[in-house]
Amino acid sequence: MRTHRRLLTVTGLAAAALATAGLNTSAFAATTLTSGHVDVLDAEWDGADLHLHVHDEESESEYEPVDVTLSVPAAAKVANPGFGFLGSGSQIWLLPDTEAEADAAGVLFPGISTEHLTTGVFANNNVTYRLVSATRNGAVTEDFSIYAGSGSRWFDSNTATTSFKSRTFAVATHNHANWAFEEAGTYQLTFRVQGTVGGVTEAATETYTVVVSS
pTM of this prediction? Predict the structure, then answer.
């Protein structure tokens, strides 16, 4: 069984305590993850509540999303594959859906995980992830999407459509797709995970910071 080290959960509590005491909490800088296998959307159930964490598979460390910055370097730029939802720019920033490609580029290999949710707890043995909102540099953005294979969209921040905002995953699974950004900037991506336990809807919502460098 995997042992989780909630490193920045503790840090967050310490920062909160200092804030309560009226002290400067700026020393508690966010951890920046730049490469390797990272489950960005990692759902867990503690028997009473759903939680979302960021799980770094490389170090077997687990973080609160608020304490993490996900870095997408200029090295992530690739030719735009030409899918209509990726806009008209010649290049996009891509976190690929295979570990080999991610390692070769030196970028993150992002996952969407339900592997810590056991069968027999959630109705139909599945949960749903929803992209609640997406901003770039503080403004609503249409420049973020997640897609699989040859352009099969999972999530899309395009506000012109209500589609591609949610996707259901079976519990106890590990999922990877391409994370695409059409412009450089600081993205705030809010995701919600939801499932039904004993007829009651359980959910957790977190916001993730992604910095895409030009």
Answer: 0.86
